[in-house]
Design goal:
Blueprint: E1 4-8, E2 14-17, E3 26-34, E4 41-47, E5 50-58, E6 68-75, E7 78-79, E8 83-85, E9 95-102, E10 106-111, E11 114-120, E12 130-135, E13 137-146, E14 162-165, E15 174-183, E16 189-196, E17 199-207, E18 212-219, E19 222-223, E20 239-246, E21 250-255, E22 258-264, E23 275-280, E24 282-288
Antiparallel strand pairs: 1-13, 2-12, 3-9, 3-13, 4-5, 4-12, 5-6, 6-7, 6-8, 9-10, 10-11, 14-23, 15-20, 15-24, 16-17, 16-23, 17-18, 18-19, 20-21, 21-22
């Protein structure tokens, strides 16, 4: 299976090879922060010197300072017709999460958990051999995964509580969870749990009634000591994106492009952790796995 292991906090400009090209159902995730004085940055999918897909947020138009986003393709040194989106979901100075889903007909691009644009293929996506990112941006995470088609759905179409099987269990140094959705305005709590046969290896709970995040583990019905990150990254009535990365000694939880918490493994048999559960008053639009 084609997969690019997650790259954490790479320097910019950033470039990495895709050994076997892109496949339908793959998703590219880019998390970072736009610099406060940025004029532009770009995410390019390339084939040799050609730019198969150019995603280019810009922050200065000749008649306005409002941001916008350009999509385009460059073949044999010649740029094609620019496709513009006149409102940018990547404000200067703020964190972002950009995802590009490869489908048979187009690239479907989302920002911060919300669908943003669609770009019809002008060149074969199978020929893409590298990802290149440059401009006035800081990067937290770049990853490529191959998703099952049914994991993308209209907002709210997932049943809550939601459970998904993690086939083969967890593996170190992989992005294993990507969750996008919407926090309902009246919600008190929502949570994400990684489970095994006898307990919960990792429970990440957003408690809006307490304005806190609580992390814990449960074994044979007994909860351990709570860990509480110092900030609440979710807001009622807002979209969100959560990425949970499994490292050899801990989990890393990214929310809307920024690292929120690192939780050291208490249950260390990662291959036995085989269920993801999402609970609470939340609407889901995308889940991996």
């Amino acid at each position: 299976m084609n997969r690019l292991p997650p790259v954490f906090n790479p320097s910019v400009p950033f470039s990495t090879q895709i050994e076997k090209g892109l496949l339908e159902g793959m998703i590219i995730t880019v998390c970072g922060r736009v610099l406060p004085d940025a004029d532009r940055f770009h995410v390019n999918l390339k084939h040799n010197s050609d730019v198969v897909l150019h995603v280019n947020p810009r922050y200065k138009w000749f008649w306005t300072d409002c941001g916008y986003v350009v999509h385009n393709t460059c073949q044999k040194g010649t740029w094609g017709y620019e496709e513009h989106k006149s409102e940018t979901p990547f404000p200067r100075g703020l964190k972002f999460a950009l995802q590009i889903l490869i489908t048979q007909d187009s690239y479907k691009i989302s920002a911060n958990g919300k669908p943003f644009s669609e770009y019809k293929h002008r060149m074969p996506f199978q020929n893409v051999d590298s990802i290149c990112i440059g401009g006035m941006v800081e990067l937290n995470l770049v990853a490529l995964q191959h998703l099952a088609p049914h994991h993308a759905a209209p907002l709210g179409s997932f049943m809550i509580p939601y459970k998904s099987i993690i086939h083969g269990g967890l593996q170190p140094d992989q992005v294993i969870i990507i969750i996008q959705g919407f926090v309902n305005p009246q919600t008190d709590r929502m949570g994400f749990s990684l489970r095994h046969k006898t307990g919960i290896a990792f429970d990440y709970s957003a408690r809006f009634d307490e304005n806190e995040i609580v992390c814990n583990s449960c074994e044979d019905g007994k909860w351990g000591e709570e860990e509480r990150p110092c900030n609440m990254p979710f807001k009622r009535g807002n979209f969100f994106e959560v990425t949970i990365c499994t490292r050899r000694h801990h989990y890393e939880v990214y929310v809307n492009g920024g690292l929120n918490y690192t939780y050291r493994h208490r249950f260390t048999k990662l291959e036995e952790i085989d269920v993801l559960e999402v609970t609470g008053d939340v609407q889901l639009s995308f889940v991996q796995p």
